[in-house]
Every structure is written in structure tokens, then in C-alpha cells.
Amino acid sequence: MRYFFHIGYNGHTYSGWQRQPKVNSVQEVIETKLSQIFKTPLTINGCGRTDSGVHASQFFFHADIEQEWDFDLKFRLNKVLPHNIAIFDIIPLEGKPHARFDAVQRQYDYYIHTYKNPFLSQLSSYYEFDNLNLAEMKRATALLPKYKDYRAFCTTPDKNEHTICNVMEANLYTTPNGDQFRFHIASNRFLGKMIRIITGKLLKIGTGNMSVDEFEHLLITLETPGMLEIAHPTGLYLSKVTYPYLNLPPRTEFSGLQQKDWVAV
Question: What's the predicted TM-score (pTM) here?
Fold first, then answer.
């Protein structure tokens, strides 16, 4: 039987989702605990690959588990996993659905705070900017769904079969007092560090170091900029993953940031 696991994690102490030699990954931690519970090696397949330090308030992986069990697996797994990884749901699915290849949409949110705050330091990116030009940042954000090729917003474009992304949504939000910001984007796929590169460009626009026309020029010409200002990983969240057969609401209580009264710019 194939099972989908609906999870969330704080990625601050992990070198990303994917198992890699000699580093601490979310995948390796979960595989180790699952294998210990079932006393047999188990491999899991995630819905994507988050970078080192990046969070997921909604994430799915699938696992094939032949053994039946007569205990509360969600409770037991949550008990043995570290505090920064949570299992929300375990869903049996018929056939061979794939957590990564079957996803039709992924949504990400990037959080920024503009004042030093010890309680946000692991959950949001700190940029001490005053008087960001939100109107120009909004103009640039609105351009994103109008273009399909994101070659200019990828660290290694030639490693991909193509650089086409169907960006369905792109919005900018702020808190009522204007000292925190959230960039939201949804697409069928994303390229390596694409969201952090876009966020870096938006911040350049907000501080007057880049024009909206220059930003659009990259989307039109597909020229890779000489300098890629990549935003910090800390503020980035994979926040929703949608399948043709599975569309669960995110467990927003996973991050207190997501409970704020965000206002569209």
C-alpha cells in the first residue's frame, strides 16, 4: 500500500529536504525513524527539494509500506521525531501516486521583517530597510504571471530540460503597520533558487537600485544577470502542494507568521 504523509517542518537546522552525504536532512531523519518503527529499511519520496534552511508549512512524501500495523502510527512517529518536524496526516492511496511528479501546483511564501526581532530570527528574513517602494515592488510582482520562461531567475538554467514555469499567482502583502512583508507565488514548478532570486530583485526595486523595466527586461530577454542577489533562505516556506486527487488545507498554525492580518499591497 502506498501512503501519503502530510507534514511540516522548520528547516532552520537542516541542510534541506533531500538526503545527502555527511549533512543533516529532513528526509534522512524521517526515513531513520520510520525504519526503526517498522524494523525494516524504508525509503520515502518527497514532493520537492527545499534548500538548506528553508521551511515547509505543508509538505508531502510517499512511502510504500507492506506491513500492516495495529498502533497509531502518526502518534508514534511524532513522538520519536524531533520537535521541528511534525506529521499532520497519513493517507492511504490506491495505485502508485507520486508525491513529486503528480503535484500540479506548489505555493511558496517568503517572509521579511524590517526590525531586529529575536522571536522571528529563525522564521523570517531580517532586512533593515526603511520606506521600501511597495508600489514599484507590486508592479514588478504583477508581471510574473505574464511570462513563462524563468531562465534569468535560476542559478543553473542549463541543468534543466527547460526553464518554463507556469506561474499562476504572484502577490505582495504587508502587515497593517508596514514592518513585515510577504511575497506569495504559485506555479506548477520552480527552478533552483528561483523564488529567492526573484525576492532579491524585488528588494532591489524596493530600495531604488533596480527599475521595474530592468526587471521585465530579464523576463523578456532571458539574460542571466551578471550578479544574482539571492535572498536569505530563512524566510522561505513551501506553503501548499496540490494534487489532482488531494487538496488539503495547510496547517497554518505551524507558523505564527501565517496568522497575521496580511494586507495586499
Answer: 0.94
